Amino acid sequence: MIPPGELEGFVREYFERRTAPLQEEEPGVFRATLPESLRPAFEGVDSIRLTFDPAIAASRSQVDLAAIGSYLMDRVVEDATRAGWHCVARIEAGAESAADVVARALRPRNATLSVEAVETAPVPHLLFNFRIRLTTDERVERLESVLIDTRTGWERKTAPALFEENLALPENVGFDWAAIGGAYGSACRILETRIEPEVRAFRAQAEALLQAELDRIGGYFDRSIREAQAARAGGGGAEARSLELERDRRLTEAKEKYRLVGEVELCNVRTVLLDVTRATVALANRGARKGLSLEYDCASMAVPSLACEVCGIPTSEPVLCFGGHVADAACVKTCEFCDRVHCRNCIAAEGSIAPCTACRRSVCPDHLEVCALSRRPFCPDHIHACAICGRTVGPEYVATCRSCEQAYCAVCVAPPAERCLTCRSLAAAAPTDPDVAAIRRADPALAKVAKWRRGSNQRFTVLAAKGLVWSQLVVLDSKGRILVRKRVRGL
């Protein structure tokens, strides 16, 4: 909200500049002489009665209210703008391409950036220049500028050069003057939010100084009053009362000295025709593609950072997740075995990335395996596919056969002998078995063995050359290479 005193000061200064000072006819009601430019809006009359108090306006007839959004205030602001508290500036786009501007501002971590369409057009903005004064025992004064995009009513952050007074490129342009009141209200709210931290700090400093001054004055006079009261028998009573009055006066002066007074004055309004470029861009990787609309003005050439769709924090180095979301690097997880990446929203909704139970590395569905016995997820480095039954199991359900020394699932390796189903199911090999023939040719010591037993699964072949007491056990892989060769009892 705009303090009533500031609004009243603006209206008074307007009439003083344009026609004549306000004349108070009765408490709270003023007579205003209208300039010729305002008379058509008020049925041609040359003066009106106005008030700054809504209660008076509601209880009196033929009294106009001067308040933000009122008919009178809209006409005053419009006329003040037309009458010289206003100028027009035109700022045009340079020769730099939109692709270069966007590429400089956005640097996607895992996607290519392409500009698909570009449109540049002048957009009317309203630049409100305010003078701010904060006064306690010291005085702070400065200028603040707020640039309002008339299309949205939002503030545009742009280059400081746009606010300089030497930027004067007058033009006669068509403009919707009725919208200036709304823009002015937006500018005031933005200014209020902007200066609020400084005002609070200034007030806190003044209150601290005031408290120190009050303590000093109070301490001094309290001691003096006690001393005077102690001497009352000698006529100190009158002196004590005098000291009390002086103390109250000094305390009141101190409070007034450190009282915070804030003033905001609208100095002028400027229309800025600012070339604004709207670029349609696309982020793409092998898993997703996302179209975006970006906008920047020719004064700052600053492309706003993209907001993370998970946490909302702007980022100039976005990550495009495979679910089509733009996210900050802290809000995504990438598969440790490929370039697949998902944001936290996708992970929560779809379970797209899961941690390996053994090593906690992130794994995508393309590389994730689920243990058939525990139903827990594992990465490719910690999952085992049993060569006998084909089920996939995690490390805790992997068992090694004591005979062939190969790893299988715990179901296929039976206690107490801890032998696998393949070794427990060896059957007599045919005389023409090619694996047996190859072993006999390669090892003369086994060439004379007549009794052979054989078993095989999806990856291994187990051969046993049967002796009277000891047997020779040979384990071959799928390509016929010898993995294990040892003497065993039995079989």
Describe this entry's structure for a reader.
The protein has 491 residues and is α+β, with helices and mostly antiparallel strands. Among the domains are: 4-84, Dihydrodipicolinate Reductase, domain 2 (2-Layer Sandwich), CATH 3.30.360; 89-268, no CATH class; 426-491. The chain has helices spanning 4-18, 54-59, 71-82, 98-105, 180-230, 236-257, 344-350, 421-424, 434-442, 444-447; strands at residues 23-26, 29-33, 47-51, 64-65, 86-91, 112-135, 139-149, 261-284, 289-297, 306-307, 314-315, 319-320, 326-327, 332-334, 341-343, 354-355, 362-363, 369-370, 377-378, 384-385, 392-393, 398-400, 407-409, 413-414, 419-420, 427-428, 452-456, 461-465, 470-476, 482-489. α5 (180-230) runs antiparallel to α6. The radius of gyration is 44 Å and the shape is elongated. The N and C termini lie far apart (96 Å).
Defining key terms:
elongated, five-stranded antiparallel β-sheet, Dihydrodipicolinate Reductase, domain 2, 30 strands, alpha+beta, 10 helices, 28% helix
